Amino acid sequence: MSSSSFSGRPVARLLSVVLPAYREEAGIARVLAELEQVLASLDVSFEVIVVDDGSPDRTFQRVSELCAARPWLRGLRLSRNFGKESALLAGLQAARGDAVITLDADLQHPPALIPELVAAWRQGVMVVNGVKADRSVEHQGYASLATLITEGLGRLTGISLRDASDYKLLDRQVVDILTDSLAERERFFRGLSQWVGFHQVDVPFKVAPSTRRTRNWSFGGLLRLTGTALVSFTSAPLQVITVLGVLTLLMAVLVGGEALVSRMAGRAVSGFTTLILTLLIIGSFIMISLGILGAYVAKIYEEIKGRPSYLVAERCGGAGRGGHRYRRVRR
Ligand code: UDP
Ligand code: MG
Question: Ligand 2 centre from 21 Cα, in Å?
Fold first, then answer.
């Protein structure tokens, strides 16, 4: 059966669930227990992959312990903290399922939504997007900042990220595109999974409270992610430079005209203030332009180095220990 057929999919398939985890020592057992309960109630084989993103706590030890009695569980430990985007990629690359679900390991993405995601997939949907319908549990400042940023990004990139989350179900075909066909190292999963196109639907969910007390994201981290999203998805900021250039040109014509007229009228141009202002304005425009150019040069540099997005230090469960139960069904 072709995966783009909308006539529904056969039931007995492998479903992968990928959890990026950073400092999730306290809550990881609980999320895995909830996942097992939900997944077992579905008519599907499943595997769960926890990618420990170089946590300083005992997240990976906890996962290794849990792996022992759970043949469906696998763990990867990255060699250091590479960031959620890289952890997600590591998970997608390790996943063998015909569909892959990605969700946060701190229970903010309720596993109870999974049957709905799977139902949509079985109807032939290729990308099922969990959309935050109620973000009241999120930090108020964080939620409004995130909304502001996504609105702006959406305008510039043409990709709507409003209330978007990393809680998604991707069909194998889309996973293969994301892992094999895209050469980008620095990724923005939320944007890319929309960019690929195909048949997509949104499923709203209520953001649940985190099992973790500490926050993993800093203001700087959020800004960096915005930068990545912006530079990866649009070259509009480069056009800002042209706009700045046109503005200075207009200014030059006005000020220059005024100076000429004064000169012909026999008045000396008395323009210390004008001079200083002009210099300052042009100076800042040049600096801003250099900054914008710099962001794109840095992106090119990062990509051209071709370093891997993550390194795996350790694995547990699955094939490493007595073979895993499931074989990936290739279409
Ligand atoms: N995460 C990660 N690496 C990081 C930061 C976070 O893998 O460097 C994981 C984290 O364990 C969680 C998910 O990404 O499963 C979302 O992180 P968090 O809950 O801190 O972010 P928020 O809920 O504020 O989006
Ligand atoms: Mg969270």
Answer: 10
